[in-house]
Amino acid sequence: MIALSGVALFILLLAIGVPILFVIAAVCLLYLESAGMPSLMIMQRMFVGLDQFIILAVPMFILTGKLMESGGTLRRLIHFALTLLGHVRGGLAQVNVAASMFFSGITGAATADVAALGPLEIEMMKKGGYPKDFATAVTISSSVIGPIVPPSIPLVIYGVVASTSIGGLFLAGVIPGLLMGLSLMALIWLLTFRFKVTPQPRQPLREMLSAGRDALGPLGLPLIILVGIYGGFFTPTEAAAVAALYAFVLGMFVYRELTWRHIPRVFLESALITAASLSILAISNMLSWIFSIELVPNAFAAFLLSLTDNVYLLFFFINVGLLLLGCIMETLAAIIITVPIFLPIMTQLGVDPIHFGVVIAINLTLGLLTPPLGLNLYIASAISGVRVERIALVNLPFLAVLIGVLFVVTYVPQLSLFLPNLLMNN
Questions:
Q1: Which domain holds residue 185?
Q2: What is the per-residue burial (b if ≥16 Cβ within 10 Å, else e) of 198-214?
């Protein structure tokens, strides 16, 4: 009875547009009241959920992205991508994807990509003759690469929940992230046959090298993080702090576009994003705790295994279920709630937790592109002025390709495990 009431309350509050943070809190309060437990349990479980050293990496990576955003990174990344790809078919759309891949690899967050790069990328493509709805669809589709390549905030949270190597997860996301970007570029090459746009002139090698040298600072950040972790110089949490310091020095003293006047705004925006993210993370830990004491993971595992013990079929069911869940639930909350349920099943059947983490991250991140609650749809709509429904419609081919990549990564585990096995076992 409590379970049915909780599910009904969850669906009702989501349907009327209540933010997911308050939806989960209401469901947890209903459970505590029904079970005769004190409501203060929520505060205690929220604290426990955040009382982990590795969680400090989240605000540090968010701060890194904001420092890079204000420190002259965007212009350099777009210029570098333009010199490399501006002359090919669909050049400006290809530049959009490449720039998003570069920038997302710095912030680790898809929403930061759309908010920071979106205005520049959409305006650039619009001036180049592309329809605004197409430009917006390209922008939001390329943004979901960020949570897969290092540094990745969803993979950090998965690593915490699954007690899995963060560094291994970062390495595991590299090849799938590149595959997502290259697949989007191939689709753009096919779709832009119908657009009468003139590619940019091919840039001379000297200009490419100059632009690459100018963008070397931000492009080197993911490499510094991975080398630092696997070289034993710092932990993943310390890597996040090093990344923030690196971004500050780069913007303030190398590019000299970050000034002391920018710092209060950078810290304020970082604090607001951090507060929103960690609040969802904390309250989701409460719901995960309720599931554990009610033995929901055990019951769900028994149910799935009663249907089949074929790992391929289970992966299919889990992927479909998570794709639907990602449409209505924020990514970090979904990771906290679902990983304790699904991970024991998959590890029992021999699935590597690192591989499963990449599958989970790709799957739930695609929820940012899908209605009714795909956050990037709404951010992009506010930036471009295109209706959410129109963006979602034009984005369907891109979403289909990304779902295709998800299933390729799911059923070819070596795509995610090649680099961790190569570098972690030597």
A1: 40-424
A2: ebbeebeeeeeeebeeb
